[in-house]
Design brief:
This protein is of the alpha+beta class and about 350 residues long. The chain folds into three domains: about 60 residues, Dna Ligase, domain 1 (2-Layer Sandwich); about 110 residues, 2-Layer Sandwich (D-amino Acid Aminotransferase, Chain A, domain 1), CATH 3.30.470.20; about 150 residues, Rossmann fold. The strands form three sheets. Strands 5, 6, 7, 8, 9 and 10 form a six-stranded antiparallel β-sheet that branches. A six-stranded mixed β-sheet has the order 11-13-12-14-15-16, with helices on both faces. It has a four-stranded antiparallel β-sheet with strand order 1-4-2-3, covered by helices on one side. A hairpin with a 7-residue loop joins strand 9 and strand 10.
Length: about 350
């Protein structure tokens, strides 16, 4: 589970770390901001990339684009004034299978990029390890003290909340001024959420995630649910729907083990997801015979007619033959083209709206 950036900063401040001030505002209120340089992070999407924009007119133009592209005017956007100098290094705390718990610091602007690692022993870093990192990063004497406090806070937060990976992409500071955290990414271990009530409360639509493992909801409250065998394939499907003019209700990772039984189980459970008009099933079958999967789906839908329109995009062995089988089912569409599949989803939504 990835925390939204403003959530991560709120927690980090509790550990005494200074973060760049930010505003969390409704998207409809963005037009009132008058800034020369701003860092804007759309918070309705987990893992959204922040954008640094210079110039008042450029900022207003970007805000206008956000307003036009997003239907929910109550969606939150994080806005940071950005009139300070970036420090050229990043910091990461992570669990490594091969090396246990480590802290990595990267010095940017060098070719090749310089990297320094320190291992965490019994949940803490020793002072000599912090000094070695500070020397490596070429920090001033005043910044080294503050850097030590930041590293200590990150390690505490890492173990306190069962974090898998904690990255600070950049710091901001003048040459001798205090360090402030700018970009931060926090991934919490999903398997440890049962003992982290605060993390569960911060999760977006966490009830849907807990009752539907593999499902990741979208804050855009769209109408197309994407199912795929692989998380990144599901995410790509969701993006393609959006690029084609549709809106995503989220995506569901079926899992790497693609069988008829697994696919039917996800189709059955996806019925519980509310406000979905079309289900887009995107399968890269590889060496698995797509006809076998298609026959399992035909048999399942023959017993229980689909409540929503289903669009299948298949790629793999006998994909064309499988598409012919699926097209025989009422309210089902099938293709081997991703572009065509996305178009069919959008058209099916438009038909429902009429």
């Amino acid at each position: 589970m990835r925390l939204l950036e403003y959530q991560a900063k709120q927690i980090l401040r509790r550990f005494g770390v200074s973060c760049l001030p930010h505003y969390l505002v409704d998207i409809s209120a963005l037009a009132s901001f008058d800034l020369d340089v701003a860092r804007i992070n759309a918070q309705w999407k987990e893992g959204a990339d922040a954008v640094v924009i210079e110039g008042t007119e450029q900022i207003k133009s970007y805000i206008k684009t956000l307003l036009e592209d997003h239907d929910d005017k109550n969606a939150k956007v994080m806005v940071e004034p950005y009139a300070v100098v970036q420090k050229g290094f990043s910091l990461s705390v992570q669990a490594r299978v091969d090396k246990g718990f480590v802290v990595e610091c990267v010095l940017k602007g060098t070719d090749p990029i310089e990297l320094h690692k320190e291992s965490i022993d019994q949940g803490r870093l020793y002072s000599f390890q912090v000094r070695r990192m500070a020397v490596f990063l070429r920090l001033s004497d005043g910044q080294r003290v503050e850097f030590g406090k930041i590293v200590d806070a990150l390690v505490q937060m890492f173990f306190r909340f069962d974090v898998e990976r904690l990255d600070i992409g950049s710091f901001v500071s003048s040459d001798s001024g205090p360090l402030q955290v700018c970009e931060i990414t926090v991934d919490v271990d999903d398997n440890a959420l049962f003992r982290q009530p605060e993390m569960r409360a911060l999760a977006k639509l966490v009830s849907a995630k807990e009752s539907h493992p593999g499902f990741e909801s979208s804050a855009t409250h769209g109408s197309v649910l994407c199912l795929a065998n692989g998380r990144y394939l599901a995410m790509a499907s969701e993006q393609f729907i959006c690029f084609s003019g549709g809106s995503s209700a989220g995506f569901w990772d079926i899992g790497e083990e693609l069988t008829g039984k697994a696919l039917i189980e996800v189709l059955e459970r996806s019925r519980e997801i509310q406000d979905v008009e079309v289900v887009f099933v995107h399968l890269f079958t590889g060496l698995t015979d797509a006809q076998v999967l298609a026959r399992a789906i035909v048999q399942y839908l023959g017993k229980r007619a689909p409540e929503r329109r289903l669009v299948f995009r298949l790629e793999g062995v006998h994909a064309l033959d499988a598409c012919k089988l699926l097209k025989q089912i009422p309210q089902c569409f099938a293709t081997t083209s991703l572009r065509e599949g996305a178009r069919l989803c959008v058209e099916a939504c438009c038909a429902d709206s009429r």
